[in-house]
Amino acid sequence: MDHSSTVPHPAATQPPAARKWWILIAVGLCLFLGSVDGSIINVAVPTLIVKLNTDFPTVQWVILSYLLGLALLLVGMGRLADMVGKKRIFVLGIALFLLGSALCGLAPTVYWLIGFRVLQSIGAAMMIALGTAILTETWPAYERGTALGFAAGFISLGIVFGPAVGGLILNYLSWRWIFYVNVPVGLIAFVLSLIFLPPMQPAGRRERFDFAGAVTMGIGLLAFTLALTVGQNIGFGEPLILLLLAIGALALPAFVWIETHVRYPMVDLSLFREPEFSLNLFTATLAFIAIAGIALLLPFYLELVLGLPLSQVGLLMAVVPVIMILLQPASGTLSDRLGTRPVSMVGLLFIFVGYVAMTTLRVDGTPLGYVLRMLPVTIGMATFNSPNNSAIMGAVPRARLGVASGILSMVRTLGQVTGIAALGAFFTTRVAHYSGAAVDLSVADPNAIISALHDQFMVVAGLILLGIVVAGLTWRWEIRTGRTKKAARQRAAEQPVVDGV
Known about the structure:
This protein is mostly helical. It has two domains: about 15-200, MFS general substrate transporter like domains (Growth Hormone, Chain: A, Up-down Bundle); about 270-480, MFS general substrate transporter like domains (Growth Hormone, Chain: A, Up-down Bundle), CATH 1.20.1250.20. It is built from 17 helices and no strands. Helix 11 (about 275-305) packs antiparallel against helix 12.
């Protein structure tokens, strides 16, 4: 059993049994809202184009402004919470999210809507960055996997709920209600947070916020995410995109230099010297990139190759998050008993097997064949996420839980953006290769699409295989250091106790 799941994590407050579940509900509702607002808007894009008298590139920024706001602010909000208190930032985030949601519903033009989505993303960053940290601090260490498993289930529920309810709202109500619907749920979370969250005051002395580091990281992340998102439309070889990528690349060493020279860095770089933190974070990044790129492209197979109606495509795509809702709490509980490493390794192996199986999808396939091949991927993601997150958070001291939670959330967001952009571009290139020339996907030969998808699945399987190797090396390190620590404790126990020493 790996020590990350057995060593008690210092916590300021361990609430009574009933109270910890109310905390989980409050945090879970906020994570649910954050994931809903990342997905519900997708189904409203055609409606927004008509109702707000605008075009698709402009409406895209209704989505991008929210995702960019999250990517830029998650780590900074986590650090700020470590300094001034997690409850204070979390509750303020709920309030800002509710205000932003109400204003989005009232937006008179698409440009006002984009601006209010930025405000909404600020509140969402405060909530999402701290959800994992709050659960890690308030739940007992031996139940951390269970808590994080339920939290992941709330996120998956939001992914399912967003498109489904968004479609119903657009059928029977105004588009404005896709934002108004946040308000009653958010108010419940707000009240529960005020009542049940402990103060969670910052540990240690007062520190200053690292504005230089925050600005440098913000510039780098903004340049990188803009390059990935805008590059999909204008091409990754354009001078503007290359300039943005260069700025993003230069910002990284500049940020590291700042963090090693300021008294109170925004990100404690010593966290990355802990293999349980850095290597598990790297493995999580690979998994997020893989699942995001595949989730983007599978509708092309279901709709353009199998010729299924959109209603059936939506139901089949919902299979993944529905199964994750059911399995993630169970995998978290299992990791509390068996250790995080064996459970997360089993998850990675399932993901790898699933992606290899997906390379056998055929032009004359069936919906059942798709589900059976996708099932190992879904089981694997559900099994991997909770214990891996638990291992990451278990390797972090209490005073850095906020920023660690923010880093984990940022990695998830950037992994999704990178997966969609990079794997989407690769897929388009492979379709053109098999078609003999660049072609509109809507009229591409199904054989070209399926061949491009096979190439995509092999690339993704390679990423997961790399993750398995890294996870295996981490497990080996954990076993070695665990034995070393055990031997050291035994030697210390054999030493005679001398009074006054």
